[in-house]
Amino acid sequence: MFNAGKRTTSTPLKHAPAEVQLHSTAPYPHRLNFYDVPPLFDVTLEEFESAALARLRILAEIESSFVRNRSYDELKSVTDAQCKKYLTLNANSASTQDLQGERRRDHVGHFVLRLAFCRSEELRRRFVKAEMMLFRVRWDTDDTREREGFLESRDFDWTPVDDKEKEAYKEELMAVPSNIRTQYSEGQFKKDKYHKVRWTRVPDLVEKRRVFLKGGWAYVHERESSSMVFQEFQINLEKALDMTAKALPRLDEDTRLIPILDNLSQGFLAGVPSEWLSSSSSGAEGSGVKAEEIDDLAKKHFPMCMRNLHESLMRDRHLKHMGRLQYGLFLKVLGVSIDEAIAFWRRSFSNITDDKFNKEYRYNIRHSYGLEGRRANYPAKSCQQILMQDQPGSAESHGCPYRHFSEDNLQSALLASYSAHGFTASDLPEIMHTVRAGHYHVACTRVFEITHARSGVKKGEGVGGGESITHPNQYAARSRELEKARQEKAESDRDAMLVDG
Amino acid sequence: MAITENSESPSPELMLAFYRRLYPFKSIMNWLNHEHVPTKLYTHREFAFTLQGDVYLRYNSFNSVEDFKKQVCTLNPTRFEIGPVYTARPRDKRTIRPGGFTPLQRELVFDIDMTDYDSIRTCCSDAGICKRCWAFITAAVKVMDSAIRDQFGYKHLLWVYSGRRGIHLWISDKEAMELTDDQRKAIVSWIAVITGGKDTHKKVNARTGSRPLPPSLQMALDPLAHYFGDLILNDQDCFASQEGWEALLHLVPDRSVSENLEKLWTKDPSRSSTQKWDDLKREVKRIEKGSAQRLVMQAAMEDIILQYTYPRLDAEVSKHRNHLLKAPFCVHPKTGRICVPVDPEHIDEFDPERVPTVDQLLKELDETMVQDSPENEEHHFDWERTSLKPYIEMLDRHAMALMDEVRRTKRGADMTW
Ligand SMILES: [Zn+2]
């Protein structure tokens, strides 16, 4: 199936049903996909990874939405916006688009993530929940006629309720609360279609008493059929993941895929790693940050991890290796040039001699800027790397405070660092609740929202469009962008005053 | 007389004699296993023991009835609970790789406890229970039993007295055994109507505005209206006290109605609950028929009937496959009473005070022994000579029906070959 590079990798997903519509003229006649059949074509390692990453970004954002208690409508608009950015999937009516290419990417991404997420029950559960939500968002944004076409293409095994039975239960069916709500007339009832399924297939409808139940059969109004589709999607996916999990050991033979899959499943824990290079379009970086400005920037714009590193450095006049690496690369991407970086570190390490500094630290700083050794351009660490790699020891300051601090220390650090930006003790319960649930990047995103409320950032907005923090430089860049916008607005307000006055 | 708690729990010696001579291990196996020969339904089933001194031992499992009985007699627990069927033998749990040990099946269970009725019953409080307040449980059993049979189509329902002031329901139909946690949650939400704690006045919110109740609740309303008259108005006289009628007025949404009634009842505090309910009905009849105001009040009155009589579930018990629930025929450690099965058809006649206690049973056994042959011949079923007999026979009949069904299904499956 997945052809990684030249060698064909053998995967456990080969058992496809015999008749597959996939091989008709166009492999993907519908925008919606139940993913019954694995991709039976060659996929390059690059496509393998990029399709999966794009999808993972969407799923991780859906998960944050759950954690942040977004309403379905909010979740839908955030997810839809993210899909348009990273994982477009157009309707048939959009004839100018590369429909088949988009759908292939959607198809591949889904199956790669199955491999990455089938490996523990916890991951499977979260994956199913997020995938089901993505399916639902797409379903709700789908063209009605195309959606019907998709429905007709599948056999959902629902029994239509015949007229005789419908008449027998007329009173009960009409009394189902969701029917009453719409001023149900008898004429309308006669026209409406009902299906019956075992109640276990539609637990969500049962839970809300949106069906009539008799003898274990749920009588479902056609209006609710989408609910049955989602349930079906979930059941299919759960079964498929179980089977994949059982067959997975065979895949473990392909050593090139494992690191990719490991990386992907971690993305769920920490959000998708964004590459955050100084070439970023935000405009706030690369503008030449001077060594003496860093302290001021830290207080105004840094996320908790970088605040902590900065404070430790100022207090101890020193940072251990991993701390220097995490902070140094962050500063580089923030726009501190090599000369300014050397000046900054030299001034900060005030307890050591020039000689010691030049011998022990100068090389490493230049190395991290790609000026020594392999001359590689090292990117700054993403939240995922900070969260998952190199757990800090007791004397070390790197890592993610949301994850690595004790609860007490985290609370005092948040208050000490951000009370000047409007963060108060009453914000702590919410943050700590999120932290305890292990959603560290969500906690960080929420702190960002609270501390940027005066720039007009609202709850749920994240770093824009509902996106969560996945990189410390993304945090700082957005923070600086917001400040700049605020200053410009203040300036133009003032100018306007002057002109008018 | 109400059931009071014994000052002492049954002695370990009494318990041991009970397990050795009376506990129906075989019947319990048949019921849990659905077949005569132990299957995974039995061997992969968790049993949890509570030992003397409240030591709690989880993840026990047994290969056979003998195995189980031997262990129970060795440990002599004060009681034990039944959990789910796992993917592996619970006793091997430690040696199984993580993820390889998950609950697969278990009976769908419900727990109704008198505690949840404390705010409305007037005859007893706290741990106390009597024949009069047992009527709340009776009403609950009637409604639940018919709702589950009619709406969910389940047939194998076993009701078990909890030994003090509640009742458990175990449903063993194949589909019920296999329900996921989400499905269990759904069925609980479907059935449960009473929500909110002590501080919530209105605990029934099952309709939109003043529109009719969903069909399933409409169906429950008729029998409950009957219980409302007998139990709430006559027997418990729930609205006699000021606290009682004030609680009622909190549920009357129409200000003018509740103000009129308040005036009337303050002036004449001696009015009985039946009279007060008639007062309310009279007030409502004065509102124009078919008006929105009248509909609101009619809906409110139905909701009041539900609030006072509809089953109050301990929902958490039902929601998870891996919840443990005390096994039938255990001895309640506080009352010494046996957790006996209850026939829902005859629940009206059930009197918790007449349920045998462990020392009564052993006395019965000793007495019949004396009358019997002096050689003290081996009896396989000592229980047949005690008042436990009808209860064990009830469980056996229930298990037999389950086994018949399994046999029929198997035969059906064989024919398709
Ligand atoms: Zn009582």
Automatic annotation (TrEMBL), chain A:
CDD domains in the record: PriL_PriS_Eukaryotic
Task: Determine if Chaperone is one of this entry's keywords.
Answer: no
Q: What are the Basic and acidic residues biased-composition ranges?
A: 478-501
Q: Where does [4Fe-4S] cluster bind?
A: C305, C383, C400, C444
Cite the DNA primase large subunit C-terminal domain residue spans from the record: 296-475
Briefly state the protein's biological role.
DNA primase is the polymerase that synthesizes small RNA primers for the Okazaki fragments made during discontinuous DNA replication.
**Listed name of the protein:** DNA primase large subunit
What is the organism of origin for this protein?
Neolentinus lepideus HHB14362 ss-1
The organism that produces this protein has a lineage beginning with:
Eukaryota, Fungi, Dikarya, Basidiomycota, Agaricomycotina
UniProtKB/TrEMBL annotation, chain B:
Q: Name one GO cellular component term.
A: alpha DNA polymerase:primase complex
Query: At the top level of its lineage, which domain of life is listed?
Result: Eukaryota
The protein's Enzyme Commission number = 2.7.7.-
List the keywords (alphabetical). Answer: DNA replication, DNA-directed RNA polymerase, Metal-binding, Nucleotidyltransferase, Primosome, Transcription, Transferase, Zinc
Per UniProt, the enzyme's principal EC class comes to: transferase
Gene3D superfamilies linked to this entry: DNA primase, PRIM domain
Similarity field = Belongs to the eukaryotic-type primase small subunit family.
Q: What is the protein named?
A: DNA primase
Provide the taxonomic classification.
Eukaryota, Fungi, Dikarya, Basidiomycota, Agaricomycotina
